Amino acid sequence: MKKSSFLLAAATGLGLCGCSTILNNLPGVYTLDIEQGNIIDQSMVNQLRPNMTKRQVLYIMGSPMLTDAFHEKRWDYLYSEQPGGDSRMQKRISLFFEGDNLIGVQGDFRPSSLPVVKESTETSVDVPKRDLDRSMWEKITGLFGDEPDPLAQRTGKNNKDPSSSAEKGKELVEEGNEQK
């Protein structure tokens, strides 16, 4: 009886170990990539410089994963990744401050001593110049021809047809004033 229960326990143990190996390596089964913590890469760490303020570091690195009330001069960033069920890879970096300024970096990354040249991903668009010399009311009344074009008056150009009687009358008055 003891032999049979021992053999049964041994067979069950081997069977369970074999099941986990088989279940982890089944073809066609999708396993998730698991990322935890602050995503840290070398380009972020390369932007760090001595005497940066805490606010500048927050802008580059984000908020720290661990802040200790007893060690306010130290910020810890942790990043853990387990791609597709493989073994877990963990990276960490600790930043040290004196007052409000960065004084040291310790961990899996080292900042570059070369200046960082970051290419811009922004594009420029040329926008045509807007006609801001006329108000909306002037533009609307200019469509109906009731009022003279104020832009034309400022520039000395008159786009209206001089054959209208009001325009002819104005021109005659102006000529009379010039002759006197």
Topology:
Layout: H1 2-24, E1 34-37, H2 42-46, H3 54-61, E2 66-68, E3 71-82, E4 89-98, E5 101-107, H4 136-144, H5 150-155, H6 165-179
Antiparallel strand pairs: 1-3, 2-3, 3-4, 4-5
Mean pLDDT: 76
Largest sheet: 5 strands, antiparallel
Uncertain stretches of 5 or more adjacent residues: none
Helix/strand class:
alpha+beta
The total strand number stands at 5
Characterize the structure shown.
- The chain is of the alpha+beta class and 180 residues long.
- Helix content is 37%, strand content 20%.
- It has a domain of 85 residues: Beta-lactamase Inhibitory Protein, Chain:B, domain 1 (2-Layer Sandwich), CATH 3.30.1450.
- The protein contains six helices and five strands.
- Strands 1, 2, 3, 4 and 5 form a five-stranded antiparallel β-sheet that branches.
- A hairpin with a 2-residue loop joins strand 2 and strand 3.
List keywords for this structure.
6 helices; 180 residues; alpha+beta; membrane; 5 strands; lipoprotein; 5-stranded antiparallel sheet; BamE-like; Beta-lactamase Inhibitory Protein, Chain:B, domain 1
Gist?
This protein has 180 residues and is α+β, with helices and mostly antiparallel strands.
